[in-house]
Design goal:
There is one protein chain. The chain is mostly beta strands. It has two domains: 140 residues, Immunoglobulin-like (Sandwich); 31 residues, no CATH class. Helix content is 0%, strand content 49%. It is built from no helices and 14 strands. Strand 6 and strand 7 form a beta hairpin. The protein starts with a strand and ends with a strand.
């Protein structure tokens, strides 16, 4: 029988590819069962010897002072959420009941995580059985500053205006023949005065 582990991972991204971004929301998933490849909880925190017994009903409190944690909009009534002030820092938490089977996979519980600080973010998890502490876990993950927005010049990547806007008007200045020292050359659109002739600024 596989060891039971408390797993937590982000369902919409892999931290091996890129860190979370400041103020961007992502969905995290809790599940108890065999070790998950993307879990952010170290193996030594939950082992087979201390694994849950059959039919264990637990209550989980998930909190953070570096992230906002929220209940998904389509969640069931077993979830609750609240915000509290601990010391000089605001701390948000979600709580839910979680039935842990003796073997196999539990149901999944989802939370929405929005980092509020760059660096190392932290989520604390307290698992209770009959109001007594059963597990205390800390989940840490990197957070980087949000990427700066690219300046918008009013054109699409193809160089055209967005749909519904009129196309760019062609230039109203036709090419002119510019002469220097009596010799005409260069069909260009810009010249500057050079004595009695016009000196070409450059070729078209």
């Amino acid at each position: 029988m596989d060891a039971q582990h408390i797993n937590f991972w982000f369902t919409d991204m892999s931290l091996e590819e890129a860190p979370l971004r400041l103020a961007e929301s992502h969905t995290g998933c809790f599940q108890v069962g065999p070790d998950h490849a993307d879990s952010l909880i170290a193996d030594d925190q939950v082992g087979q010897a201390g694994g849950p017994v059959a039919g264990l009903l637990t209550r989980w409190i998930v909190s953070s002072s570096t992230c906002e944690v929220f209940v998904p909009e389509d969640t069931d009534s077993l979830f609750s959420a609240e915000a509290s002030l601990g010391g000089d820092r605001s701390q948000r938490s979600v709580a839910f009941e979680f039935f842990i089977p003796q073997a196999g996979y539990s149901r999944k519980r989802f939370v929405v995580v929005t980092p509020q600080e760059s660096g190392t973010a932290r989520i604390d998890v307290l698992v209770l059985v009959d109001d007594d502490p059963y597990r205390e876990l800390t989940i840490e993950f990197p957070v980087e500053e949000s990427l700066p927005a690219s300046p918008f010049d009013g054109l699409t990547p193809s160089g055209q205006p967005p749909a519904g806007q009129p196309p760019l008007a062609p230039s109203s200045s036709p090419p002119r023949v510019c002469c220097e020292s009596g010799s005409c050359s260069f069909m260009i659109t810009s010249c500057e005065t050079w004595g009695s002739d016009e000196r070409p600024v450059g070729p078209a």
